[in-house]
């Protein structure tokens, strides 16, 4: 064979390799999203590791003054402390950076690891080691409440950092070690990561005031963008939301039954606009609540991938209080979903109970609120059978929210998945509005969960939707005026 063919063959092989890589990637994505996510497997969740420890001691770092320290140095050694000598080739320290402990200027700061992208600094004056990005968190030190040793930051997780007491002489650690059975001790020696032995503190990025910021309802989306008459809009919402017909089916029905030509895309646009308008009323209506709430996640497909919806629900009054939507199941979303419940109370009731599944994110969210002085009980109903007393007692509550999830799924399934992220968000908002204000509930003697007298005057569902839109508009105006 002529060697002149080699480059050509080489190119063919290369192209084929790229194709294979692409196909493998596609296949793995198809595989990951072909099946509904499995309900959290209890075996995967290490409950033993999920215990939430008491709060650490927070010690403010002693503030120093670099000018005084320089004076002291001169006094003690007879020589002034010189700024850091830098080679011409070494990276410079930005003059904007000061030592957070003693305020020494950049001239006195070593770039500790010599790299400016991972910016760790060492102060020559006070020997403080700090990271520029986290320089303020360095102003406080977390100490173990059991042994008072400084905690060490061991991990950044999405939403929080983990601090650990690494002291082997810590009473917490010693007590845990003693409590292990012989078998457990053997396991522990083999694989240390199986057990939570050390005191741990999770420091959340999120603050309560981030959550408490009341959204601004200044609306960019104008209702008058809707060209159909209010009654036609009400009809569309009835078919699309109450009966869960897809936008295309709703469009077909509007034509076949009412001789009105409206495209599926127009209906999707209407749904988005209306969701935007009813959301303030739905989310901020002063609901009368009980003190029993349950939460659950359900999953939906968006652009071929699984996404999660978090519901929190008043188990007694049958009112949906939270309908968060996220790509992942994470602690931050759980914190926000719980906030949707507790923000309704001026004073969080003592007996407040949240019944949820076994997902550890709710325990972490509870820890977040405990750190902020808000206490409530989280009751985890685990698995499908009553293996423990708690599960037995609270299963009826769990079933209530599972029923809500089924209702939502029944309502959403005919829509056949969503093509964009705005679709499910709009749909879950409309579903919540429908569920709270318009849908008669069997358990409430066929009454709707929230009775709005104004809606009673409306003869049919389309007019109820129109009325609800007006009420929401007034609700927004009133809030903006106050
Ligand atoms: Zn310093
Ligand atoms: Zn300790």
From TrEMBL:
One of its GO terms (molecular function) is nucleic acid binding. Residues 296-409 form the DDE domain. This is DDE domain-containing protein. It comes from Tetragenococcus koreensis.
């Amino acid at each position: 064979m002529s060697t002149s063919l080699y480059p050509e063959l080489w190119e063919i092989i290369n192209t084929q390799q790229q194709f294979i890589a692409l196909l493998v990637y596609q296949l793995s994505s198809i595989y990951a999203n072909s099946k509904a996510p499995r309900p959290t497997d209890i075996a995967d969740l290490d409950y033993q590791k999920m215990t939430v420890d008491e709060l650490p001691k927070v010690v403010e770092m002693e503030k120093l003054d670099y000018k005084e320290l320089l004076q002291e140095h001169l006094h003690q050694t007879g020589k002034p402390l010189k700024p850091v000598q830098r080679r011409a080739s070494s990276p410079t320290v930005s003059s904007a950076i000061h030592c957070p402990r003693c305020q020494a200027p950049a001239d006195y700061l070593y770039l500790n690891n010599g790299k400016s992208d991972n910016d760790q600094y060492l102060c020559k004056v006070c020997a403080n080691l700090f990271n520029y990005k986290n320089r303020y968190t360095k102003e406080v030190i977390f100490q173990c409440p059991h042994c008072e040793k400084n905690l060490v930051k061991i991990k950044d997780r999405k939403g929080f950092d983990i601090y650990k007491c690494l002291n082997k002489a810590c009473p917490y650690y010693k007590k845990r070690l003693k409590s292990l059975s012989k078998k457990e001790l053997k396991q522990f020696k083999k694989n240390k990561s199986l057990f939570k032995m050390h005191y741990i503190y999770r420091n959340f990025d999120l603050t309560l005031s981030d959550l408490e910021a009341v959204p601004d309802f200044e609306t960019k989306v104008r209702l008058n963008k809707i060209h159909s008459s209010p009654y036609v809009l009400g009809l569309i919402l009835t078919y699309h939301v109450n009966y869960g017909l897809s936008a295309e089916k709703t469009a077909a029905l509007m034509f076949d039954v009412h001789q009105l030509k409206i495209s599926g895309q127009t209906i999707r646009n209407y749904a988005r606009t209306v969701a935007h308008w009813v959301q303030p009323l739905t989310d901020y209506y002063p609901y009368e609540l009980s003190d029993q709430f349950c939460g659950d996640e359900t999953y939906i497909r968006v652009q071929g991938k699984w996404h999660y919806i978090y519901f929190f629900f008043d188990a007694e009054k049958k009112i949906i209080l939270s309908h968060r939507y996220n790509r992942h199941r994470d602690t931050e979303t759980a914190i926000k979903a719980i906030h949707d419940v507790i923000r309704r109370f001026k004073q969080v009731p003592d007996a407040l109970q949240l019944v949820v599944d076994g997902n550890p994110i709710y325990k972490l969210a509870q820890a977040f609120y405990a750190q902020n002085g808000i206490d409530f009980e989280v009751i985890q109903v685990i698995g499908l059978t009553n293996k423990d007393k708690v599960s037995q007692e609270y299963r009826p509550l769990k079933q209530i929210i599972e029923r809500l999830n089924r209702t939502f799924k029944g309502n959403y399934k005919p829509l056949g998945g969503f093509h964009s992220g705005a679709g499910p968000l709009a749909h879950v908002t409309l579903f919540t509005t429908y569920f709270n204000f318009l849908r008669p509930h069997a358990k409430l003697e066929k009454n709707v969960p929230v009775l709005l007298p104004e809606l009673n005057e409306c003869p049919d569902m389309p007019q109820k939707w129109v009325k609800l839109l007006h009420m929401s508009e007034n609700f927004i105006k009133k809030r903006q005026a106050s």
